[in-house]
Amino acid sequence: MRIVRKTATVCLLAGLGLAGTAQAADDPIATRQAIMASVGAAAGLGGGMMKGEIDYNPVAGKAVIATMQAASFTFGDFFPAGSDQGDTGALASIWENADGFAAELAKLSDATGKATAASGKDGPADLDAFKAAMGPIFGTCKSCHETYRKKN
Ligand code: HEC
Fold first, then answer.
1. Of 21, 49, 73, 152, which has the highest C-beta tally within 10 A?
2. Does residue 104 line the site of ligand 1, with CB under 6 A?
3. Closest ligand 1 atom to the C-alpha of 75?
């Protein structure tokens, strides 16, 4: 009896998990925030290595850059008209100046593209190479957030 109940609970939890995923896919605000949250996590790892708080590792360096590059390809797809309303940190300026916003996003994809090319197959060889690759990428965060994201 106990086993049966546990199984039912597991199925229920699995079902809820799937429902949650389906909802996120229909929700552009949640989706773009999840993409940016992945960029934020990568920035935490990258910044930690740059500050010497985390030992530098080329594979981790490569993952940081790849995460940010992937985000630059998908982020722009989740700003449909009307999604300036709701629980979002996005400013109306994104829709008022869509070209300007696209240009900021292009800066991120440009900088991450260059970093990817410079880091090669195995990732930036040492911390100095990683810092050189990341500098221009981190510049794009501030540049876009200044104009297109609400201040906290
Ligand atoms: C092209 C513009 C743009 C660039 C470039 C950009 N961001 Fe963002 N970011 C945004 C916008 C817009 C939001 C708010 C999204 C929302 O709430 O709907 C945001 C939100 C965030 C968030 C909060 C995510 C959440 O959980 O809600 C973090 C963290 C973040 N950005 C980190 C970064 C970092 C780090 C970089 C640079 C590597 C970066 N961003 C580059 C536009 C940008």
1. 49
2. yes
3. 1
